[in-house]
Design brief:
single chain, alpha/beta, twelve-stranded mixed β-sheet, 14% strand, elongated
């Protein structure tokens, strides 16, 4: 048997599945595509998380697009973080090209041009379905980790949440939390000290500065009502396709604090909302986090630990999380160890540090007699990737340098008019884009403070009035000449003298 035939059998046997799957492309040997040597990704293991990595221009985004549209076609809803703004084309069919036909002929798959159901979401002032969450939904522990607070400061946050629960003060947005922080060391200082002990103004000042940092990055738009419901990310069309939810993030690349805050809150909300289900035939939801280093580079140690914990646990809810980044080392080792699928596009070795990173990356893949992994990582072309997945029993599939299939949807962005059409057709825009500012902690505390000041002013007014009355009485008495004469000692002696003479 020739090496080519042996390799074909090796790939085909290793990618045999009983359940449904996604065909990513066809395996390559010695730089040549082996037609029909399909590299398959079982849907059953798509909740085991994954990584799409590679240098700029190697095809990461198109691979992400291929996975998203194939998951949608299989009825799996998807959430994409669109940092660069180049994924909106999923809503329109591909225009086709002779190079696409040539690529698919090599793979052995017919090419189909298709559009997919798309929902455009936003965290900022961009057009789309507005995503929000309330302060109360975060809770004291998660909020403290996002703000990177000390143990003492976290304790104060817990006390504040307890006070608000006890006094029915809803914490909805940042102005609510800022108001209660000021109240506990000013107007409500005595009340807090009696119930919960003394609260340091230095600590509340430090917490307030952390809040302002998030507020400056757009947190005032994110925190509030109406809260986005996880169920709305998991919709399917009447013909069974999963919605592709594209979160537009092109204007928050320089605001990583807001991005990591949103991601952590979303993962926590998904984990709390979805029921435990273990491994099933396909995932309930798949998240793709593009430019994943934006989460990890600016995250505190506490925040990283929280993300790592949720990534470990959320798999059992039927949710897969896929990180897209330039270098695998951008993702912490604790998260990398949880990944079942690795799609590695070409890496470039320009420096000694780059070469070291390539060697470390090569060690993360299964050994194979058909490739020198470190060498092939630098030799891959655009749209080619080294793929290691899990079969239906959770075992690694054969390592394969893969010619990745082309996206069925447009590989370009939508025009402004097309974007507007997608947004105008959205039912979720009507549900979430009206700003709600109902009475919450800010308004209730202001009323309480105003009432207290009104009572205080009234008491001061009464006291001043009484004081003036007493002063006026004394002044009147002192200034009346008749009373002064009648009460004088001389007048009294004279009266008694006259009476005595008369008698």
């Amino acid at each position: 048997m020739s090496k080519r035939d042996a390799f074909f059998n090796h790939i085909t046997e290793g990618n045999t599945t009983k359940g449904d799957y996604i065909t990513l492309g066809s395996a390559m040997l010695d730089g040549e595509t082996i037609t029909n040597a399909y590299v398959k990704l079982p849907l059953k293991t798509m909740n085991r998380h994954g990584l799409i990595a590679g240098a700029t221009g190697t095809g990461k985004t198109k691979t992400l697009q291929v996975l998203a549209e194939n998951l949608s076609e299989k009825g799996v809803p998807v959430l994409l973080m669109d940092i660069k703004g180049d994924l909106s084309g999923l809503a329109k069919p591909s225009l086709g090209h002779e190079k696409i036909d040539e690529r698919h002929a090599q793979i052995g798959l017919p090419f189909e041009s298709k559009a997919f159901p798309v929902e455009l979401l936003t965290l900022s002032e961009q057009d789309g379905v507005r995503l929000r969450a309330t302060i109360s939904e975060f809770g004291p522990v998660l909020l403290s980790r996002i703000l990177d607070l000390t143990e003492t400061q976290s304790g104060i946050v817990s006390v504040i949440f307890k006070y608000c629960d006890d006094n029915k003060l809803p914490l909805l947005d940042l102005k609510d939390f800022k108001k209660i922080l000021q109240y506990c060391t000013q107007e409500g200082k005595a009340e807090f000290q009696e119930e919960y002990g003394r609260i340091s103004t230095a600590s509340t000042g430090a917490i307030l500065r952390k809040l302002i940092e998030i507020e400056q990055q757009g947190g005032d738009l994110f925190f509030g009502e109406k809260s986005f419901e996880v169920e709305d990310l998991m919709r399917t069309t009447r013909d069974g396709k999963g919605y592709i939810n594209i979160l537009r993030l092109t204007d928050i690349q320089d605001r990583p604090k807001l991005f990591s805050t949103f991601m952590l809150s979303l993962l926590a909300e998904i984990y709390e909302t979805l029921p435990e289900q273990g491994d099933s035939g396909k995932p309930e939801l798949v998240l793709f986090i593009d430019e994943a280093h934006l989460i990890f580079n600016e995250a505190s140690k506490a925040l990283l630990n929280q993300i790592e914990s949720i990534v470990k646990l959320i798999r059992s809810k039927g949710v897969g999380v896929y990180f897209v980044t330039q270098n695998p080392t951008d993702v912490p080792e604790g998260v990398l160890s949880q990944l079942g699928l690795k799609i590695q596009h070409a890496l470039r070795a320009f420096t000694a540090k780059d070469r070291k990173a390539i060697k470390l990356t090569a060690q993360n893949y299964p050994d194979t007699e058909y490739y020198d992994t470190a060498d092939i990582l630098t030799a891959l072309g655009t749209g080619e990737a080294l793929v290691s997945a899990l079969d239906e029993k959770g075992r690694p599939t054969p390592l394969a340098a893969t010619l990745v299939r082309a996206p069925m949807s447009r590989m370009d962005i939508l025009t402004d008019k097309e974007l507007r059409e997608v947004i105008d057709d959205s039912k979720l825009v009507l549900k979430y884009n009206d700003t709600i500012d109902r009475e919450s902690a800010y308004e209730i505390l202001n009323k309480k403070i105003d009432a207290a000041e009104t009572v205080k002013a009234e008491l001061e007014k009464q006291e001043e009035s009484q004081k003036k009355s007493r002063t006026s009485t004394r002044r009147s008495t002192a200034q009346n000449p008749l009373i002064k004469v009648l009460t004088s000692a001389t007048f009294i002696r004279s009266v008694f003298g006259i009476i005595k003479k008369v008698i």
